Amino acid sequence: MKKLLIWVIALLLLILLVFKGLPVLVNLYLNENADRIVSNMITRTSGFGDHEITFGEIKLDYNYSGTYLQLEDIQITPADNISENQLKVTLSAKQVRVSGFRWKDFLMENSIVVDSATIDNITIKTLSPALDSMHFSESKPNRKAHRDYKIISVKHFGLNHLSVENRDSYSDSLRLELFDLSVAASGFRLTEEDIQNKEALFDVDMIQGTISKANLHFDEYRQMVIVDSLAFNTEDNTLGIGNFSLIHKLDRYTYTGLQDKRMSWIEIGDTKLKVRGMDFNSYFRNGTVEIDSLIASNLKLSVFTDKRKSEDLSKRPPMFHESLNKLEQVLHIKNTLLRNGYLRIEERADNNAPQSGALFFTELNAHIKNISNHKEMMAGNSQLVMNVKAKLMDIGPVDLSMDYDLASENGTFKLKGTLGKMPLRTLNNMIEPEAKISLKSGVINRLDFNIIANDYEGSGEAIVRYEDLELELLNKDFGKDQNVFRKIGSFLANKVVIKSNNPNKRGDLKKGTVYYLREPHKSIYNYWWKLIFSGLKSTLTGEDLEEMKKKELENRNGTPKKAK
């Protein structure tokens, strides 16, 4: 009995020795082969299969609850034999710390499962061709076949101070710059299916983070998007941008002068963006953007067009429903709010005008409902509704509403609005260069318009109430005719005074007819203006609907369809 007890104790001591000694032996093996093991864990995947990796120091500490891993001074560089059509990554990281690494999942399930991971001070520089020509593994690598992990799962993840730079591999031009990204996440999961699915990113229980600054470059348009102070948080479903700008690398005249055809120069500046009620999970899992409210404050939008450039008649700027349907991104924004915006529209006329013409809107506030191409959401409501208030030339109050049927094949919409009292001379900056007419005096007391249109034609009614309208025609040099000997003889040609008011002294109110055939190579905003302008013009000329249709058809040689 005593001998049996001794054997039992000895066996228990042996088991205890093995239990205690096994981690020591494992740690000796792991640290002796740490460089090879960790390098293989990274470069076995398709994304880094043709890259080399080095470490300054590796520390592995195994126990039965998991393995602790600490990496110092990580460097990843492209291999010499990497294909030109592959993504080339140069990465450096100061430190990576991983705890609770599960060897069973790694060896048996081809998965990485850890309790926590933290990456500090990481810089990534990439060279890539156009996305449609890029692939990850064209040439046969020197290692065994790449295998993406079935799942990468991290209970708690921290990323501190990440910077990214992406350049075009053919031109070396800068595409993307991202500065100081920091992220904290829990319940992070990335599956093999996520990697293969172009719409999915990953799954996460909670994620929040900040980006100090991001720049996105567009070489074709010589533009750059600048994003400052971005923050997001899935706990309250918000995303904010302290300052959003779209700037040109060339001034307006230089840029438009380089174009073969007419192309607008556009800039956006000093805009603060706030997103509320964003479904982050829907975006991470299937790429769908669902937002309750998008708020843009202090938007400053400038548009310049050089009309001396010939138009590209083959262009087909899409209507709203066409723009949304062309998006690969599924999108649904319930409410879009513009607060205290500014819009400036400037045009260089196609004549010898000494300066460009411009008009602007201040105190621009808008509420747009239901920007969507989400089929399930649109099944219950396909109407995009927009209400806008602003001041034209910082004087005339503007109130505009639009209902647009996004489910309509021909883009049916209703446009209704008013312009309040303002002196006509304030519009000379835009009118004179374009029409060679100077508005000497007069006041618009009120303009009302009500229009129904589609992507082919529009019609309706406009009522403009004005008084003391006086027009002066300008000569070919855009000067007033001061020749004393010609002044009397040219009076009728140089100066036209409309003495009647609308309504006239008897109280009769003349109503204008709206009709216009859309020019398909021009934008929907140009279409809106031409519809409204047709009503203003018919108020003065007295043309009726049939006369206007006939004239439009003579200009276009088309066949009209009725707006529905």
How many DSSP-defined strands? 23
What helical percentage do the residues reach?
10-25%
| Beta content | over 45%
Low-confidence stretches: 13-22, 132-144, 480-494, 560-564
Global mean pLDDT: 84
Number of self-contained structural domains: 4
What is Rg?
Answer: 34 Å
- Count of discrete alpha- or pi-helical segments spanning 4 or more residues: 13
How many strands, what sense, and barrel or not for the largest sheet?
23 strands, mixed
Through-space gap between termini: 103 Å
Q: What class do helices, strands and sheet pairing give?
A: alpha+beta
Shape: elongated
Could you please describe the fold and organization of this structure?
It contains 13 helices and 23 strands. It is elongated and about 100 Å long. It has helices spanning 2-32, 34-43, 103-109, 192-196, 252-258, 280-286, 320-326, 375-380, 428-435, 484-487, 491-494, 524-541, 545-556; strands at residues 51-54, 57-63, 66-78, 88-101, 112-128, 151-168, 174-191, 206-218, 223-233, 238-248, 265-278, 289-297, 300-306, 331-348, 357-372, 383-392, 396-405, 413-419, 422-423, 437-453, 457-473, 495-497, 512-517. Helix content is 22%, strand content 46%. A hairpin with a 3-residue loop joins strand 16 and strand 17. It folds into four domains: 1-32; 34-136 and 156-184, no CATH class; 220-407, no CATH class; 419-564, no CATH class.
